[in-house]
């Protein structure tokens, strides 16, 4: 079942220059079309400035595109009435890169995770606390963390809290915008494992936005490559992606192969990934 359908989306930011009369801003997204099936992860890979976050915002309903349409379960995101819009907002969540700035530093973990529940569910205080504890445990934290503040957590733990908040309303799609990019390798692996488990348990779909080819490869079922606002390639499988001769993919692949001695020591590059 197709959950998200993006049709011919183009976008440019309006120039806010005081001196220029007309806006001549360049196109940031150019005729982008793709879809995400229920329960799958689409990796969106591209270098900095490619337009990945803009596309994420367009999909989240935060940046209305100049052209094209975004359909969530068949409903046009930018034309939906209030009721449908509210439902879409429940079903569509986001986790950003910077775990610290994504949370209010003055709120405890309990309050942070409870926020979507307060907005959308009418639970009693006891029910809500129970739900928050279950969410904490599901992301690998515990009841002991309820009363802690953001500064008392590591970056990885805080990202777990952001994930708990994102899954609190049992959404259908989560946009993960560089969600593991600022974490060290070990923590990245653990968070990717957590995301993989949640995806299976809740039949979740992800749009996994990243500049990191290895992270994309680890978690994605399908991969799209965004280059200067254009979706230049779409791969329906990891194998198709890894063996691609497209220059952007080759470049990214060689950069990570050079980074990790482990990948250099094994005969074929593909073998290295098969066991990663
Ligand atoms: N709010 C904005 N106003 C104007 N230009 C923007 C804005 N946000 C991003 N851009 C520009 O759009 C391009 C794509 O940015 P972005 O979507 O953040 O790329 P990525 O996430 O792939 O690094 C960049 O050239 C960036 O400078
Ligand atoms: Mg970005």
TrEMBL record:
Residues 4-253 form the ABC transporter domain. Pfam families: ABC_tran (PF00005). One of its GO terms (cellular component) is plasma membrane. Keywords: ATP-binding, Ion transport, Nickel, Nickel transport, Nucleotide-binding, Transport. CDD domains: ABC_NikE_OppD_transporters. It comes from Priestia veravalensis. The keyword Nucleotide-binding applies. This is Nickel import ATP-binding protein NikE. PROSITE patterns: ABC_TRANSPORTER_1, ABC_TRANSPORTER_2. The keyword Nucleus does not apply. One of its GO terms (molecular function) is ABC-type nickel transporter activity.
């Amino acid at each position: 079942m197709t959950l998200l359908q993006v049709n011919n989306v183009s976008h440019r930011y309006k120039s806010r220059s005081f001196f220029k009369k007309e806006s001549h801003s360049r196109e940031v997204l150019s005729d982008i079309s793709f879809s995400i099936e229920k329960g799958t992860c689409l990796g969106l890979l591209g270098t900095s400035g490619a337009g990945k976050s803009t596309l994420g915002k367009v999909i989240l309903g935060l940046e209305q595109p100049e052209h094209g349409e975004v359909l969530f379960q068949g409903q046009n995101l930018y034309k939906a009435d209030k009721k449908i819009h509210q439902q879409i907002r429940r079903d569509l969540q986001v986790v950003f890169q910077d775990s610290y700035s994504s949370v209010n530093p003055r709120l405890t973990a309990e309050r942070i995770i409870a926020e979507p529940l307060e907005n959308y569910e009418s639970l009693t205080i006891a029910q809500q606390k129970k739900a928050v504890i279950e969410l904490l445990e599901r992301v690998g934290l515990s009841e002991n963390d309820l009363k802690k503040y953001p500064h008392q957590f590591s970056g990885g733990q805080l990202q777990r809290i952001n994930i708990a908040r994102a899954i609190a309303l049992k959404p259908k799609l989560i946009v993960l915008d560089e969600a593991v990019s600022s974490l060290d390798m070990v923590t990245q692996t653990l968070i990717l494992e957590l995301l993989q488990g949640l995806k299976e348990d809740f039949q979740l779909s992800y749009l996994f936005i990243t500049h990191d080819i290895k992270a994309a490869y680890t978690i994605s079922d399908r991969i799209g490559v965004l280059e200067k606002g254009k979706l230049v390639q779409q791969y329906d499988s990891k194998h198709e992606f890894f063996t691609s001769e497209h220059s952007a993919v080759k470049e990214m692949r060689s950069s990570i192969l050079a980074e990790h001695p482990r990948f250099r020591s094994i005969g074929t590059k593909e073998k290295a990934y098969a066991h990663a």
